[in-house]
Amino acid sequence: QSGAALESFSDVRPGQWYSQAIDWVCQRGLMKGVSDDRFAPGEGTTRGMLVTMLFRFEGAEAGATAKFSDVQDGQWYSDAVAWASSNGVVSGFAEGITDGSNAMGDITREQLAAVLYRYAKLKGVDVSAQGDLSGFADRGEVAAWAEEPLQWAVGCGLLNGNADGSLDPAGNATRAQVAAILTRFDEKVAK
Questions:
Q1: What are the tens digits of pLDDT across the range 158-187?
Q2: How far is CA 127 from CA 9, 109, 121, 156, in A?
Q3: How far is Cα of residue 186 from the mean position of the Cα atoms in its chain?
Q4: How far apart, in whole angstroms, are the C-alpha atoms of residue 189 and residue 73?
Q5: Where on the phi/psi map is residue 63: left (φ > 0), alpha (ψ -120 to 50), or beta?
Q6: Residues 111, 146: contact at Cβ < 8 Å?
Q7: pLDDT (tens digit, 9 = 90+) per residue, 5-33?
Q8: What is the DSSP letter of 189?
């Protein structure tokens, strides 16, 4: 049944650029609201949230052990981080899942691209698409380790620039952006 998220969440209205994507990810159980009636589309997406979404997308089962000191057993994201780390979807360093409570820190757009790039490789997807980053005003702000994943993400249409012509590589990926990107991933990459 379509439109469930639009009816459930007071902060998601029909016609907003992200409304259909939020409905899609909620219908598939990839994302949930932050409460029964609120999705919080403009809030950041944590690293733990992202790997949990991919864990659900993959239909993976618990079983691996996380190799990061900041991921303790029994957390809602523990199984997902263990799956992602044991399959090379997250490496730890680039995503910041290495100390303290960073698994709950917001993920940046370039970190998101890197995780999706590695997830696509895990799925056996061709990741040779090379988008041109030179047209983005902030192209010089892209970290060296993120350049190839961002070129891929732009090249296959997962990430688009902002209205101001920026890519915003170090900016936090909002929940609405992640919903839209996961929808595009399913349409353009996973099939």
A1: 998 888 999 999 999 999 999 999 999 999
A2: 35, 18, 7, 9
A3: 12
A4: 32
A5: left
A6: yes
A7: 678 899 999 899 999 999 999 999 999 99
A8: I
Residue 63 CB-half CA count within 13 A: 5
Residue at 126: amino acid letter: D
Using CA atoms, how far apart are residues 98 and 146, in angstroms rounded to an integer?
18
Angular region, 20: left φ>0, alpha ψ -120 to 50, beta rest? alpha
Give the SS3 label for residue 183.
Answer: helix
What confidence tier does 3 reach under pLDDT thresholds 50, 70, 90? low
Q: Half-sphere exposure of 2 toward its Cβ, with a 13 Å CA cutoff?
A: 4
Report pTM: 0.88
User: Helix H segments across the chain?
Assistant: 4-8, 19-27, 47-58, 78-86, 109-122, 147-155, 175-184
Place of tokens 């991921």: 71
In sequence order, what are the residues at sequence separation of 6 or more whose Cβ sits closer than 8 angstroms to the Cβ of residue 55?
79, 80, 83, 84
Rounded Cα distance between 25 and 42, Å, is 16
Backbone angles phi, psi at 5, to 5 degrees: -65, -35
Give the chain's mean pLDDT.
86
Q: Is residue 100 predicted with pLDDT exceeding 60?
A: no
pLDDT at 188 over 80: yes
